[in-house]
Design a protein that fits this description.
With about 170 residues, the chain is an alpha+beta fold. The chain has one domain: 2-Layer Sandwich (60s Ribosomal Protein L30, Chain: A), CATH 3.30.1330.200. Helix content is about 20%, strand content about 35%. It contains 3 helices and 10 strands. The strands form 2 sheets. A 5-stranded mixed β-sheet has the order 1-3-8-9-10, with no helix packed on it. Strands 2-5-4-6-7 form a 5-stranded mixed β-sheet, covered by helices on one side. The radius of gyration is 15 Å and the shape is globular. The relative contact order is 0.21.
């Protein structure tokens, strides 16, 4: 059983990604975190070859809903946020053929009464992008009606997933 990177807070530098935001890093001490993913999506792009990763916390599926806001805050939308994440990963030296992806969120916050279907629509938008480019999806924690929190350690490649049901760890560099 791997030792959790969260047991060594003095060695890690937590980068918190808020709603409609993103971060990308190649600092081995970085831990990328985002909290309370409901209908929003958390998208982690990682390149294990150079131990770089990015985390996007997008909230709406399609930038055409508000093109002005998409120009000002591209990470708010799944389509423009993903492009921003990819640009920054490539800027850190990531190679497309080594990229791996983790997705979490996309819940239906109101169950069967979810008229707007934001979570499922976020997933549909992202799935089209992933399928178009045949990206390597290594973990997917999506749908349902629960929220999720993510912590990803660049040094260990461990993803910690927290839900109301408990906490689990998943290897992303293997």
């Amino acid at each position: 059983m791997p030792v959790s990177y969260l047991n060594s807070p003095a060695l890690s530098q937590r980068v918190i990604v808020g709603v409609g935001d993103f971060a990308a890093a190649n600092n081995p001490n970085a831990v990328l975190s985002t909290f309370a993913l409901g209908s929003c999506l958390g998208v982690i792009a990682l390149d294990p070859g150079i131990k770089a990763a990015g985390l996007l916390h997008c909230m709406l599926p399609d930038s055409t809903l508000d093109e002005e806001k998409a120009r000002d805050r591209p990470a708010m939308f799944t389509d423009t946020g993903f492009k921003l994440l990819m640009r920054n990963m490539l800027g850190l030296g990531a190679r497309v053929h080594r990229l791996r992806f983790v997705i979490a969120g996309g819940a239906s916050n109101f169950g069967d009464q979810d008229f707007f279907r934001i979570g499922p629509r976020n997933l549909e938008t992202l799935d089209k992008i992933i399928d178009t480019y045949s990206f390597n999806m290594i973990h997917r924690f999506t749908g349902g009606t629960i929220n999720r929190t993510l912590h990803f350690s660049l040094s260990t490649g461990l993803l910690q997933l927290k839900t109301p049901q408990g906490t689990s760890e998943h290897s992303c560099y293997d």
